[in-house]
Design a protein that fits this description.
By secondary structure, the protein is mainly alpha-helical. It has five helices and six strands, in the order αββααβββαβα. A hairpin with a 4-residue loop joins strand 4 and strand 5. The longest helix has 46 residues. The radius of gyration is 31 Å and the shape is elongated.
Length: 180
C-alpha cells in the first residue's frame, strides 16, 4: 500500500496499539449489547442479524422482513433511506404478514372472502367486499371462536353426563343381576 519496493522480504509485525484498540472496542460493544438487550428466551422474537448469542428483537421491519435488536436497529433510526421503512413490534414469520401480490403489509380483513388483504388488494380485488381493519376482524373472529369452543365444551359435558348415567345404570343392572 505504501508503494515502497523491498529488495528482501520485510519482517511484518502486528500493530499492537491498533490490535488492543480493536479488542477493547469489541469487548465494549459486546458489554453494551448484553447490558442493553437481553438474550432472547424461547417464545420471544430474536434478532435476525445477531451472530452467536441471539439478542431479543425490539422491532421488525416490514420492508427488510427482518427483526432487529437495539444495536442492529440503529441504522433504521438514523440512516435517511432506512427511516422510511415501516417498523412494527417484533413478530415471527414476517413473510406471512406481507401481501405476496403487492409486497405491502396485510392491514385489512375481508369478511366476504375471510382473508387478510393489503390496501392495494382492497382497492383492486376486494373493492365491493365487506372489509374491516385487521384488529376489528381479529376481535370478531376471536369472539366467534370462543363461542364455538364454549359450545364444544358444553356438548362434551353433556356427553360425559350421559356416559356417567349409563355407567350408573349398568352398575345397578349388574348389582340387580348379582342379587338375583
Amino acid at each position: 500500500m505504501c508503494k515502497k519496493a523491498f529488495n528482501t522480504k520485510p519482517e511484518l509485525h502486528v500493530n499492537t496499539f491498533i490490535s488492543e484498540m480493536v479488542a477493547q472496542f469489541r469487548q465494549s460493544a459486546q458489554q453494551k449489547a448484553s447490558s442493553s438487550s437481553s438474550v432472547s428466551k424461547p417464545g420471544e422474537v430474536s434478532c435476525d442479524v445477531c451472530t452467536g448469542a441471539k439478542l431479543k428483537a425490539l422491532k421488525s421491519c416490514l420492508v427488510c422482513l427482518t427483526s432487529y435488536c437495539e444495536t442492529h436497529l440503529e441504522p433504521h433510526l438514523t440512516a435517511s433511506g432506512l427511516k422510511r421503512h415501516q417498523l412494527i413490534d417484533p413478530v415471527k414469520n414476517l413473510e406471512d404478514r406481507i401481501c405476496t401480490k403487492h409486497d405491502k403489509p396485510l392491514e385489512l380483513f375481508c369478511k366476504t372472502d375471510q382473508t387478510c388483504v393489503c390496501m392495494l388488494c382492497h382497492v383492486s380485488d376486494h373493492k365491493m367486499h365487506d372489509v374491516v381493519p385487521l384488529r376489528e376482524g381479529y376481535e370478531v373472529k376471536k369472539a366467534e371462536l370462543e363461542a364455538e369452543i364454549q359450545q364444544m365444551i358444553q356438548k362434551r359435558k353433556q356427553k360425559i353426563q350421559e356416559i356417567k348415567r349409563s355407567v350408573d345404570l349398568s352398575e345397578k343392572d349388574a348389582d340387580r343381576e348379582i342379587a338375583e
